[in-house]
Amino acid sequence: MKVTNGELAEKGSKEEIINHFCDVKKTNDCPITDVLARISDKWTMHTLIILGKSDKLRFTELKNQVEGISQRMLTVTLRTLEEDGFVTRTIFPQIPPKVEYELTTLGRSLVVELISLSNWANDNMKAVLEARERYILKQN
């Protein structure tokens, strides 16, 4: 199905839309590829969305809300999010040490887009599952 000019007009001019996409043959300098590679692993989106629902969370609170994540994976995920500027980490010098994580302005803006993607997925999941089923039947 081709995207119509009307659908493109809602997002901007056709040229503006096309210019936002990268040459699919050149992935090295592609912002879309770079950002998606960083956030599309098993844990990152879940972590971002949970942080988006809260003002600030301590490590243990966050770990308890990201079902199934190990301490090591949460640490790696949070470090990557901090490196990319999506999360800030605040250390309070006390005993025991207290560390809080919260989304930055950049992180909050990403979560807004993830909510749009989530809404699209919820609205279209039935059609996706039906398409998968048709595909499997066609293969047999």
Walk me through the topology.
Blueprint: H1 5-11, H2 14-20, H3 31-39, H4 44-53, E1 57-58, H5 59-65, H6 71-83, E2 87-92, E3 98-103, H7 105-139
Antiparallel strand pairs: 1-3, 2-3
Helix pairs in contact: 4-7
Description of the molecule:
This protein is mainly alpha-helical and 140 residues long. It has a single domain (41-139), classed as Winged helix-like DNA-binding domain superfamily/Winged helix DNA-binding domain (Arc Repressor Mutant, subunit A). 63% of the residues lie in helices and 10% in strands. The chain has seven helices and three strands. The protein has helices at residues 5-11, 14-20, 31-39, 44-53, 59-65, 71-83, 105-139, and strands at residues 57-58, 87-92, 98-103. The protein has a three-stranded antiparallel sheet. A hairpin with a 5-residue loop joins strand 2 (87-92) and strand 3 (98-103). Helix 4 packs across helix 7. The radius of gyration is 19 Å and the shape is globular. The model has no long low-confidence stretch (mean pLDDT 86).
Task: Provide key terms for this protein.
about 65% helix, DNA-binding, globular, three-stranded antiparallel β-sheet, WH_DNA-bd_sf, DNA binding, transcription regulation, WH-like_DNA-bd_sf, about 140 residues, Arc Repressor Mutant, subunit A, about 10% strand, mainly alpha, 3 strands
